[in-house]
Amino acid sequence: MTPHDSEHGALVQADRFPDPGVHEHKPRLTDTDPRSAKRNERLIALLFVISALGTIASLWAYFAVRPDGTTEGVRLSTIALGVTMAISLFGIGIAAVQWAKTLMSNREYTEERHSSASSAEVREAVAVQFKEGAEDAGIARRPVLLGSVGLALALFPLTIAVPLVSSVGGDWNVSKFRHTIWGKGVRLAYDPSGRLIRAADLTIGSVAHVIPDVPAEERESHHWITEKAKAVVLLVRLDPRDLKRDHREGASHDGIVAYSKICTHVGCPVALYEQQTHHLLCPCHQSTFDIADGAKVVFGPAKRPLPQLPITVDDEGYLVAEDDFNEPIGPSYWERLK
Question: CA triplet 256, 260, 264: central angle to 5 degrees?
């Protein structure tokens, strides 16, 4: 290619893609009608005030609507906190969007590229531009708007800070993770129905989500919800010949194995079972465990096998636990022995 061809190509490119420049500024209604601008200013201020009221309501909900130890109480407390915090946050967000679309300057500006090091003259020019932009947006002329946004932004962090501060000095007894309500003789029941499980009813390939059998009246207590979260189990029946030789002796019954559903990575529920490979997958980060080989990790970020629940059958043929899990459930934590 000759220099002439190169120059010709550059000219063709320049002709084909001309610089569009800055589009002509089209004034909005709020730019030309002071009454419209005033209405939007009041609307935005109202949204910020609603956000502030949502923050105050969330603080009231945190202290007044406390869980009373029942499922309904926990649900009511969670809903009250969630709704009031959502009002507080969405009030700020919607107000900010409305402010940007109706009152802030919407003019387009261009600036040619230059070296990153700016001269003193350029820095002074930028400061002047910022000042002019603020004047163009009319911020100084809207004290009600400034006051409402300051109120909303000042109060919103309390929705996070107050619960965090009030939790200092709470229950940090991590030894609770070492044990669950499983124990010798506790029967296995289907989750959530609570129906007991007979070993004879499970065929090879069967998978069941399992919880400890407790009296029906206890299932509505806050204590039961906490304990259930630690004690959830996945029960699988394999062909006994598929179990590896190093499988824990005495922990299974006729090919039926039970493992904690709580992933040892970050605690997600592990419940995706692949019958052909006997692999159990965690949907959060794809940690994969081999059920036929003591739930050892075969893929993913988890570092430890799933804890196993030793099981047997009682005189009536129902599956029962022989003991608690063979090790603490869930992710690793400090003071853990292994």
Answer: 135
- Residue 226 CA to residue 232 CA, distance in Å, equals 11
The Cα-based distances of 32 to 6, 29, 99, 127, 128 in angstroms read: 50, 5, 16, 27, 25
Instruction: Decide: 94 and 47 in contact? Cβ < 8 Å.
Output: yes
Query: Mean pLDDT across the chain, nearest whole number?
Result: 83
pLDDT digits (tens, 9 = 90+) for 77-130: 889 999 999 999 999 999 999 988 888 887 777 766 666 677 788 888 888 887
- The answer to whether 260 and 309 are in contact (CB under 8 A) is yes
For residue 318, give Cα distances in angstroms to 106, 153, 166, 195, 197. 72, 59, 45, 11, 6
> Beta strand pairing status for 256-260 and 272-274?
unpaired
| Residue range 42-68: mean pLDDT, rounded | 91
pLDDT at 132: 74
Q: What beta strand segments (E) does 92-185 contain?
A: none
The count of C-alpha atoms lying within 13 angstroms of the C-alpha of 10, restricted to the half-sphere facing its C-beta, is 7
Exposed, middle or buried by CB within 10 Å (0-12, 13-18, 19+), for 257? buried
